[in-house]
Amino acid sequence: MSRMNAKNTGVLLVVLLAGVVLGGFLGYLAKDVPYLTWLNYGQQFGIGSTGQDGVVKLNLGVMVISFGLSIKITIGGIIGIILAILIYRKL
Fold first, then answer.
1. Which residues, other chains included, contact 45 with Cβ-Cβ below 8 Å and sequence gap of 6+?
2. Where do runs of H (alpha helix) occur along 1-91?
3. b/e string for 25-48 if b means 16 or more Cβ within 10 A?
4. Sheet holding 55-59, edge to edge
5. What pLDDT digit, counting tens, does each position of 17-61 carry?
6. Considering the chain, what percentage of its residues have pLDDT values greater than 90?
7. Among residues 40, 31, 26, which one has the least CA distance to residue 84?
């Protein structure tokens, strides 16, 4: 039974990721449509120094490793998540 729950969790994560990506993409496409600009409204946050576009560099002498993470949450992405959850519940 534990294996079944892991499979369902994996499917849920894939469906949620698809919802976020599609919702964010639709919000980006709608940013120039006058009555749909609110879909692209959101907040961006991340990890890293602000001077270098959100990238933290670790210089080890012979190798430089760069780390960075930036997430933008939009209304379109939130709507995508809600629709993804509804679709998942129907599966």
1. 70, 71
2. 2-29, 75-90
3. ebbeebeeeeeeeebbebeeeeeb
4. 42-47, 64-74, 55-59
5. 999 999 999 989 988 888 988 988 888 887 765 555 667 788 888
6. 30
7. 26
What kind and span of H or E run contains 58?
A: strand 55-59
Phi and psi at residue 41, in whole multiples of 5°?
A: -75, 135
Q: Enumerate long-range contacts of 3-9, CB under 8 Å, 24 or more apart.
A: none
> Does residue 24 come out as left (phi exceeding 0), alpha (psi in the -120 to 50 range) or beta?
alpha
Q: Please report which helix (H) or strand (E) contains residue 71, including its range.
A: strand 64-74
Separation of alpha carbons 79 and 89, rounded Å: 16
Cα–Cα distance, 1 to 3 (Å, whole number): 5
Q: Which CA distances in Å does 74 have to 15, 19, 43, 65, 71? A: 17, 12, 7, 30, 10
Locate 58 and state its tokens. Answer: 């670790």
